[in-house]
Input
Amino acid sequence: MTATGVDLRDSPSQAQFRALARDWLRANVPPVPLSSGDTRAGFAQHVEWERRLFDARWAAVSWPTRFGGRDASLWEWLIFEEEYYAAAAPQRVTQNGIFLLAPALFEFGTDDQRERVLPRMAAAHDLWCQGWSEPGAGSDLAAISSRARRVPGGWRLSGQKTWTTRGAFCTHLFGLFRTDPDAERHRGLTYFLIPLDRQGITVRGFGRLDGDEGFAEVFFDDAFVPDETELGSCVLGAVGQGWQVAMATTGSERGLTLRSPGRYLAAAQRLIELARERDPGPRLRERVVRGWLGARAYQLFTMAQVSDIVEGRPPGARSSLNKLHWSQLDIELHETAMELLGPQAEQDSQWSRGYLFALSGPIYAGTNEIQRNIVAERLLGLPRA
Amino acid sequence: MHFALTGDQLAMRDAVRDLLAARCPSAVVRAAWPGGDRSAADAVWTELAVLGLFGAAVPRRDGGLGLDETDLVPLLEEVGYAAVPLPVAETAAVAAPLLAQAADPHGQLRGIVAGTSQVAVQTAADLVPYGHRADLVLSLRDGAARLVAPAARDAVATVDGSRSASLVVLPDGGLVTDDPRLVRLALARADLANAAQLIGLGRRMLDLTVGYVRERRQFGVPVGSFQAVKHPLADTLLRLEFAAPAVLAAGSALASGDATAERDVSAAVLLSIEAARLAARTAIQCHGAIGYTVEYDLHLYAKRSWALAACCDTDAHLARLADSLELKGGGHGR
Output
């Protein structure tokens, strides 16, 4: 609750920030799109782009300046995202680190860990992937069985992680391992920060439905990780506190910071331009309008959410609403595009690749089935099964 | 940028909510159907007048509260939540502000603000919701606004019996304004009011259903513990939560006189109709057979939501949005 009412326009300083971002992007976004960040060659191009972002302090705008950020407010971050996607700037390949690991570091890490890890992450010197899922533990994350055994000077890791996005291109992994073999489920887990070049760690990339080597399995064969690496302590938070550390950021992961409205506003705009070219009949025209409506609704929902966060009302389980909405919206937008393209939909294109990727939206970052359970149980108060 | 209600807006909303919770429970809505006693509903009208609701969007110099469309949205959500069987929105959000803006040529504004007249609204459609009992009808047709007492009324059987809808014969005269801009604004407010009430109705149906499925037990457990029940209810909440901000944003756009205001109203209407429609279907289904009776309260809210949806020309709103996005019409593909 504040004295100022609803005002959806940029403030003068926000307008200034927007102009700054827009100008920089206009001057720096590569005119020819890079190859896909899920291929080796393309990944290298994207890493180079991340370094340019970092050098200009655009890689992680909401971080403190001493870590390479701009101390930007959440509003400014939203604005930057809008401008980024409107400029058709390259896909970000540091997202797992910036949006999943970094919040955990801010909340549970030591100053030493933050100083060592964050700037290198933002500059894409270290590329982080997430080691959560295992063959036997997908939605049921508490069923993980990969172990970390305490030995002198460090830990020995055993087990297997899977569905690790871009794991084959990454240098480091943050993951949950079971440190207390007698504890079950979410107890006795520890959150580790692991360099992937250690002996005993094998990364095997494999293909996703959208064709690229975007998945990986990571095998830990009694791999030794020392207590201290050049990134500081290999444990984030306390031993045995892994579940709490992981869950604290689950909310932000699912919701706002993983997918900002700018992404879908830009996609909706491209869809509108495609429709203008194709001049479809009323049915497809309605689908285009509804796609835009979904993106606009997400923008407004997010603005309300940011107002809440800024005024001290964190979203909590409402982040599941974000995730449900954007994942379905993405499919809607791309399915409409595929229809507009007609026979051309069969050809490889930005739209076809976007469509294939959109199909994974309801699966990653917590399946939509799990999200609906969360909404029903935590927001509506319905009883657990 | 800021997108949250102020303390004052929340306080006013809570006042309306508390009043309606106490004085307009489902029994009052039910009693407004043909054959029932409408005195309780009329008492609600008086109380809302005391609260100042009918003059909410009327300037202070005309005896109103001097608020705007942004303030009205949360209040109208509550009116929808309670399914008040009276032309509250028509009087407060359409008639009163229009009269104020048109300089009240026939001196009707004070009485309306004071709650002495129930005003129904006639748009392009012949059927006038609340037309059978309203004191005055505001006709918004052919670019002109006229406010008159009907010369004749012909009650019409409707799906939502609490709306006392009527065909009306209106005498000539009573011109409030023929400024097309003001008439368009009044129509936009009418659409906005429907959208806000639809959100409220959707929330009411969702709340009813959540309450029911938590209690109802089958196979030894509450039926609300089954995913087949949980997931549609989650989807309903999802739609409502993404429609509601669009309604508030449309109110803000109207209040600010934004160039995009009519487009924003169209967006609000389409999103709120989808959300309320889903809420009604899900509510009926998740209740099982009991939701399909008239003894149970659900049908009161579902029927009101369908009635409000019927008042909105969704094709026209879609066309307006398509135009605003510069999607040309009439094509048949490449």
In short: The radius of gyration of chain A is 21 Å. Residues 12-92 of chain A form a domain with the Butyryl-Coa Dehydrogenase, subunit A; domain 1 fold (CATH 1.10.540.10). The beta strands of chain A are 128-131, 147-151, 154-161, 172-178, 189-195, 201-206, 215-226, 228-229, 232-233, 235-236.
